[in-house]
Amino acid sequence: MSGSPAFAQSLDELIPQSAVERPEDWAAQGAPETPQPPAEDPQEPAGSDEQVPAPTVVPSDPLFDLNASLDNLSIPEIPELEPDPEALAFTEIDAPDLVELPELIEVSLGDELVLAFPADRSIFPEEREFVERFRALSTIKALDSGQETVPQLAARARSDELLLDDILRNYGYYDGSVIRLLSGGRREQARVGSAVDSDPRVRFDIIPGERYSFGRIDLGALDRLPDPDGARLRSEFGIASGDPLYADRIVAQQLNLSVALGENGYPFATLGEPSLLVDHSRLEGDLALPVEPGGKFVFGDILSNDPEFLSGRHLARIARFDPGETYRESMKEDLRRAILATGLVSSVAIAPREATPPEAGAPGEVALDVTLERAPLRTISGAIGYGTEDGFKLEAGWEHRNLFPPEGSLRLRGIIGTREQLASVTFARRNFRQRDQTIGIDAYASDIETEAVDARTIGLRAGLERVSNLIFQKPLGWQAGFELLYTDERNRVIGGIPRPRQTYQIAGLFGSMTIDRSDDLLDPTKGFRITGVVAPEVSRSLGDETYYVRTRIDASIYQPFGDNVIAGRIAFATNQGAEPFQLAPSRRLYAGGGGSVRGYGFQSIGPLNDFGEPTGGGSLVEAAVEARIETGLLDGAVEVVPFFDVGSVSLGSTPDFRFIQYGAGVGVRYKTSFGPIRVDVGVPLNPGMFDAPVVVYVSLGQAF
Questions:
Q1: Within this chain, do residues 228 and 166 fall inside the same structural domain, yes or no?
Q2: Has residue 537 been placed in a domain?
Q3: Contacts of 519 (CB under 8 A, 6+ apart)
Q4: Alpha carbon separation from 133 to 202, 337, 466, 526 (Å, rounded)
Q5: Is 690 inside a domain boundary?
Q6: 493, pLDDT greater than 80
Q7: Gyration radius of the chain over CA positions
Q8: Are residues 202 and 241 in the same domain?
Q9: Sign (positive/negative) of CA torsion 451, 453, 454, 456?
Q10: What's 122-166 look like in SS3?
């Protein structure tokens, strides 16, 4: 290149050998003056053949000096622009007033999290529900405090900001704002000083804005359904134009409408996915829910896939509906539960099927196809335990639950215990002729020995009943039947004269009725129960016949007070028509024990002989009151129950309160899935010479 030698020569001149040997001295001398190139001769002819070498540019410093170039740079003058008439017209429009932010008050959700809402609650009436929902979903709530958590806190704050915005929209505030403020941490500590508490904290300012409302409501084919069904089903949807636009209500009312369709004769109705079109200019959301009712139907036949095991005819007895009644989904589900309650099947499915289509405004008919699977039918059971009133007990049993179809069972049962020995054979047919009705025959032999009764008995008992059980608690229950007994019983010493064992042949009828308006069979918290029993009997012993009527009434009431319950009970019993000594000891009346008057032994209240042995009476009165107090222990499973009981047993058939005893104490209830386990400690307040100072009772279920 032609320029290379010249450039090399310039470097040699700029950096002499002395500069290389002594660079510091050379640098102190400064740079030599740079020769300027000769000015170009303007008279030089343009077409000269002589070549002019390119001028050599030598910088004044190892770095190129740009100052000269900048000084010579000329910036053209910008002409003044003409005013834009459209922009000028815009500036003349009156600007609207700025929106003033409302005054905010803070709601603390912990050390790291604060929400701020408008102080005027009318601006955001959903504040309480909003806070509870956010508290349950917030990612910050699960984060531990500390300076090392600032990056995590910032990340979770961004997530919670989106969550808050979603919740605002759920309540219909589509123009709301969420302002996130993060403070604290190392930067904050460095800025304000270490003496200031600088734990990280997030604050969200919630500015809800205007709340939107539901606009047009489109329910598809349901809007074309004739009245009265159309009007009734539309009202069941529960959302009307102008209502606050709560997204939760869409889901809830969609479910309500689906249930209402199934309960009003539309088993094949379908509901599509709801859609919401939000119009910000109208502050409204138009809701569309595609509904296809599918025709109205009534119940028809019930068909079983295993008719030899459980026939459709028997299933129709179990059902709580008759053919021709309007189809109801709840009745179909009730039938499914009732079939499971028989204990004969392991699974059951019921499918409605169109048997006759609707025609000319008349409803169609739907058949129910029942598909069931048999469960194991034989059961061997056993139990061993101890009760404060029964002593030790060993029990075994065998049962075939469908030996005589349909639902005809045979049960063998045996008990060996401290106070009771029993052998029994029981036949029962459940759902006999109608739902929840049982006919049964029980033949048994027993030997029972308590402080009051020592009886060796052979008995036969038969009855028809409709009573509550753990699966179905019935508001009205009843029993009716007869009983035959042959019993050999020991009499006590009465009037100083020992009485020998005596045999009795007893025949009688019995009937009972229970009105149950309580909310739970084993652990009621509200409502009441009343049970009445009447049993006319005839007893033959030593050649004499005695006619009498045994009568008893029990009533209890339950009153809630917050999470606590006050419960009360009263009982009255009498044997009319005979003196106590004319009756078998097992037919006389006694009081005392865990289900009677706590603080006293089983059957220990009433007339006693010279040895402190109860002889029984002709009438009885009992009363009790207790408070079932929640403790919060073990997630609310533990209750403390102070109680006060009173009872009296009189010799005559009319109470005279000659023998009246009072007891008090405190108990503990531990609630389980199958009922409360009860432990009561009772103290007699006016004990007799034969009463213990403290009595403990353990059992399942409440005392009453």
A1: no
A2: yes
A3: 525, 526, 527, 558
A4: 18, 35, 46, 31
A5: yes
A6: no
A7: 47
A8: no
A9: negative
A10: CCCCCHHHHHHHHHHHCCCCCCCCCHHHHHHHHHHHHHHHHHHHH
Asked if 109 and 130 count as a contact pair (C-beta separation under 8 A), the reply is no
> Does 323 share its domain with 271?
no
The pLDDT of residue 201: 83
3 state SS of 62: coil
- Cβ neighbors of 336 (< 8 A, separation 6 or more) are 348, 349, 350
CA-based nearest residue to 668, from 658, 659, 656, 680: 680
Q: Cα dist. 328→294, 318, 324, 434 in Å?
A: 15, 16, 12, 20
Residues 259 and 162 in one domain: no
Q: How confident is the model at residue 636 (pLDDT cuts 50, 70, 90)?
A: confident
Q: Where are the extended beta strands (E) located within 265-344?
A: 270-271, 275-279, 284-288, 291-292, 297-304
pLDDT tens-digit readout, 536-582: 999 999 989 999 999 999 999 999 998 899 999 999 999 999 998 89
CA 59 → CA 8, 53, 63, 701, distances in Å? 14, 19, 7, 107
Q: How confident is the model at residue 90 (pLDDT cuts 50, 70, 90)?
A: very low
Which among 292, 323, 349 is the end of a domain? 292
Whether the CB-CB separation of 175 and 280 falls below 8 Å is answered with: yes
Question: Within 10 A of 450 (CB to CB), how many other CB atoms are there?
Answer: 20
278 and 310 belong to one structural domain:
no
Is the residue at 126 inside a domain? Answer: yes
User: 231 and 274 in one domain?
Assistant: yes
pLDDT at 92: 40
Task: pLDDT band for 517, please (50, 70, 90 cuts).
Answer: very high
Contact by Cβ (8 Å): 659, 605: yes
Query: What is the model's pLDDT at position 385?
Result: 79
Which percentage of the chain shows pLDDT scores above 70? 81
The residue from 243, 275, 292 where one domain ends is 292
672, pLDDT greater than 70: yes
pLDDT in tens, 616-627: 999 999 999 999
For 245, the domain range is 213-292
| Beta carbons within 8 Å of 13's beta carbon, 6+ residues apart | none
Amino acid 84: pLDDT: 53
Say yes or no: 138 and 280 in one domain. no
Check whether 321 has a pLDDT greater than 90. yes
Q: Are 185 and 282 contained in the same domain?
A: no
Number of structural domains in the chain: 4
| Residue for token pair 């059971």 | 381
Name which residue leads in pLDDT, 315 or 53. Answer: 315
Classify residue 463: in a domain, yes or no: no
- Contact present, 679 and 665 (Cβ < 8 Å): no
Buried/exposed code over 137-173 (b: 16+ C-beta within 10 A; e: otherwise): ebebeebeeeeebbeebeebbeebeebbbebbbbbbb
CATH (domain of 326): 3.10.20.310
